[in-house]
Amino acid sequence: MPIIGTNFTKINVERTGVARNVKINSNLGIKDISDLDLSLGKSKQVGVKFEFEFTVKYDPGASMLFEGEVLYLGEEKDIAEIKKQWADKKPVEEKLMADVMNSALQKSTIKALELSSDLGLPAPIKLPKVTQKEK
């Protein structure tokens, strides 16, 4: 079943000063999994919310924190298995986690890129550049 959305619940960006040669470190983690119940008309759909945290730290001088949730719908037995694995501190299926992490990473990186430009910070990812060939 599909990922139906990725939303932010908190964004915190702080700039305290930036030098020219900064180290940029980013980290993404899943903090928790909770129930997602959706009623669409007469049908009830079940799923889970994967709560994530994405941080970007500029050393020295700035930091970004993004918290949010990736919404996933599935069959009841699959959702029950995901919640059981999480509760037992066992890994959730790799393909599902890769999809969830990529969804959170894509949304967070795009927002971090936008905010870094607004605050005059270096981009948190390597941007493509046009170079001239030597003749």
* Coarse shape: elongated
Mean pLDDT: 89
Secondary-structure element string: EEEEHH
What's the helical proportion of residues? 25-40%
Total of domains? 1
The largest sheet is:
4 strands, antiparallel
- Extended strand count: 4
Q: What is the C-alpha radius of gyration, as a whole number of Å?
A: 19 Å
Separate helix tally: 2
Q: What strand order characterises the main sheet?
A: 1-4-3-2
Structural class: alpha+beta
* Low-pLDDT segments, ≥5 res: none
| Range of strand content | over 45%
Distance between the termini: 53 Å
Give a short summary of the structure.
This protein is of the alpha+beta class and 135 residues long. It has helices at residues 76-87, 94-118; strands at residues 3-15, 23-40, 43-59, 62-74.
Question: Can you tell me about this structure?
Answer:
- The protein is an alpha+beta fold and 135 residues long.
- It has one domain.
- It contains 2 helices and 4 strands.
- It has helices at 76-87, 94-118, and strands at 3-15, 23-40, 43-59, 62-74.
- A 4-stranded antiparallel β-sheet has the order 1-4-3-2.
- The longest helix is centred in the last third of the chain and has 25 residues, at 94-118.
- The relative contact order is 0.23.
- The mean pLDDT is 89.
Q: Any chance you could write out the topology, listing elements then pairs?
A:
Blueprint: E1 3-15, E2 23-40, E3 43-59, E4 62-74, H1 76-87, H2 94-118
Please describe the structure with a list of short key phrases separated by commas or semicolons.
2 helices, alpha+beta, single chain, 135 residues
